[in-house]
Write a structure and sequence with these properties.
This protein is mostly helical. The chain has one domain. It has helices at about 1-10, 15-30, 35-40, 50-60, 75-80, 85-105, 110-115, 130-145, 145-154. Helix 2 runs parallel beside helix 4 and helix 6 (about 85-105) runs parallel beside helix 8 (about 130-145).
Length: about 150
């Protein structure tokens, strides 16, 4: 696992991105990477935003395998990236939250609250509309998902 962590945080971003893409792709179909959930989660607050971007998607892809509810212990840290210092990372987080919410519908109300309360004033005027668009798209996915509708009806 140390090898994978080193690859995900490698200086060569193209290489590290390819490794992350492989993990994300495989995680769509199998839980083989879920056992490393805690290790991936340890990178959530990595100083390098590209590492944070990668790990947000890896964790989102593995949310569907989270029968042990490990996500409970990281959801606050995860949601903090909705207003990450880097607007690109904020956008990646917001997009990945759609997958998290679909896999873990119990988080949908919390995700929606976080999106509604997010203070975007620190972002440049050129980025703010993009982040708002991402928020609207994620909210639409989460509020029209069968799991959310089923929760609201019961």
């Amino acid at each position: 696992m140390q090898d994978i962590m080193a690859k995900l945080t490698a200086k060569n971003d193209k290489y590290a991105c390819a490794i992350a893409d492989k993990i994300i792709s495989e995680s769509q179909d199998t839980d083989e990477w879920y056992e490393y959930f805690d290790e991936f989660a340890s990178l959530l607050n990595h100083p390098k935003s590209l590492v944070r971007n990668r790990v947000l998607y890896i964790l989102a892809a593995n949310a569907q395998w989270d029968d042990e509810n490990r996500f409970d212990s990281i959801i606050s840290d995860y949601l903090a990236h909705v207003t990450d210092e880097k607007p690109i990372t904020a956008r990646q987080c917001i997009k990945a939250l759609a997958q998290v919410g679909v896999a873990k519908p119990q988080y949908i109300p919390r995700i929606l609250l976080c999106l509604h309360e997010a203070d975007l004033s620190k972002y440049k005027d050129s980025m703010r509309p993009l982040i708002e668009k991402d928020m609207a798209e994620t909210e639409k996915i989460l509020t029209t998902s069968d799991t959310y509708l089923g929760q609201r009806l019961t």
